[in-house]
Amino acid sequence: MAKCPNCGSDNPDYAFYCGRCSAELKDSSGKPYVTPRPVTPPPPRKVVPRLVEVKIATRTVNPMIGGVCVILAGLLAVLQGALALVGEAQILDMTGSGNGWLTFWGVFFIVVGMGAILLGSRAISRTGYAGALIGAVLGIMGVGFGIGPFLALGGLVLIALSREEFQY
Ligand SMILES: [Zn+2]
Fold first, then answer.
1. How far is the CA of 33 from the centre of ligand 1 (A)?
2. Residue pLDDT, tens place only, 39-89
3. For residue 37, what are the CA distances in angstroms to 3, 34, 40?
4. Distance between Cα 11 and ligand 1 center (Å)
5. Among 6, 51, 59, 108, who pairs with 23 as Cys (CB 3.0-4.6 Å)?
6. What does 98-128 look like in DSSP terms, one character per residue?
7. What would you measure as the largest C-alpha separation in the chain, in angstroms?
């Protein structure tokens, strides 16, 4: 649109003279008086890489809680194994084994519990899905005063539910 410098009325861009008051619609340089159309720039779009977006969207606390459960089960198993090695009677009753098995069970619980602790940390760091699952199974096998298996089973479920959150 060309605005008339005299009367202010709008005229088509191609007009040389105002349609209302007949004033000239060009400035001294010969260019027509054109009111530039206001250009609204499009709002800047936030570009977020897709992979990052997906990663953030699917992150849950499940692997962390699962890992903590497995590690706790592992700690209980190690403590239980240590008590078996020093010949605590409770361990005998719990495993239903004779005295000759105390050393075997003591070592077994400690090894299995250590495995659960080490592999349970894989769930917390979200590195190694298979390892974290194996850790949970070791946590179940560790017996852990009868509480450990439930903790480790809960951990196993939480870890299994968050497969896509693990790096590998
Ligand atoms: Zn005019």
1. 12
2. 777 777 777 666 655 555 578 899 999 999 999 999 999 999 998 888 765
3. 12, 9, 9
4. 8
5. 6
6. -GGGHHHHHHHHHHHHHHHHHHHHHHHTT--
7. 118
